[in-house]
Every structure is written in C-alpha cells, then in structure tokens.
C-alpha cells in the first residue's frame, strides 16, 4: 500500500513480526512469532469501540490484571496469513452472562489474537497488544471505556478520559437481546 507506513519501531517487532503497517483506515495485528497476521479497521463502522476490561475472565485469559481490547466487525477484519494456524478454546462457565466466548490463539506461539462470542455475533474482541503500530495505542485505539471497573486492582489507575463502567456496562442486554444501557454507560 502506497499510503501505508511501516510500524513504529519497537524492540519486539523483529524477524517475522517486522512487516506490520498502518494507514488512516487500517492497521496490521500480528502474533508474537509472526505466523498469524490480520488487518483490522481503525474507523467506524468496522471499528466498534475500544475498552479496558477488569473482569476475572479477561484477567485469566490474558494472564494479566486487565485486558486492553477493541471490537471490530468480522466483515471489516481480514487475515494476511495464518488463519489456519489458529486454535480455539471455548467455554461459557467463566463469563458473567453465561454466554460462550471462543478464544483464538496462534498454535505456534500461543498469542491470543481475539475472542468471539454469542454475546456479540459478527464481532471480534481483539487484543490491543497485537497491534503492530504501537503509536495507535495513544491515538485511535486508546480505550474510551473501562468495564468491570469496580474490580480494578487498587494499584491500577483509571484510563484518563475513559468512561468508567460497572459490570459489563454497554454490553448489558435485556431478555429480548436488545442493548440495554445502565445509567451512565455509553456505547463501546
């Protein structure tokens, strides 16, 4: 792509992970070993939202105290390589809604590329750390919402300017499946 720029330098972007790029509309997301690479949208309608989650499920699956995420529509996300190198682990017993979440990992290095679930069909919950252009974390992919903020570790500060949501916030659905906003909750 002629209007693409090479990923901002970062010590880990080397070997098979050094071919990332971004432009004003899209960016690459690559696993640690480089075998899986995707192109993700940076604007609506493909980019649905950016958020930090402090729930137990995200803590466990990311092996961290929180997960930095963005949501993108399947229809606006594509693989450059490695779709066949993903393995999936699914379960419903850990999510607060009982909905099934499928976790797609690189078979080679174990990087969690995204989650998908019955809670939001046609949407991928992408992990922020897989984005090759790290400068996007301070701009287009900066989290706008924190969910399960009541479970944030005491030593973790809120994201400046991000809406603080209790529980699932914008993901809460009523019995008909329609989005139901809790007071003070915005859209992801």
Question: How is this fold's topology laid out?
Answer:
Layout: E1 5-6, E2 21-22, E3 26-30, E4 37-41, E5 47-53, H1 56-62, E6 67-73, E7 78-81, E8 86-91, E9 101-106, E10 112-117, E11 123-127, E12 145-147, E13 163-164
Parallel strand pairs: 5-12, 12-13
Antiparallel strand pairs: 1-2, 3-4, 4-7, 5-6, 6-11, 8-9, 9-10, 10-11
Structure, described:
Residues 172-188 have a biased composition (Basic and acidic residues). This is Mss4-like protein. It holds the Pfam family GFA. By secondary structure, the chain is mainly beta. The chain has one domain (5-166): Metal Binding Protein, Guanine Nucleotide Exchange Factor, Chain A (Beta Complex), CATH 2.170.150.70. The chain is 4% helix and 32% strand. The strands form three sheets. The protein has an eight-stranded mixed β-sheet. A three-stranded antiparallel β-sheet has the order 3-4-7, with no helix packed on it. A hairpin with a 5-residue loop joins strand 10 and strand 11. The radius of gyration is 16 Å and the shape is globular. The model is unreliable at 174-188 (pLDDT under 50).
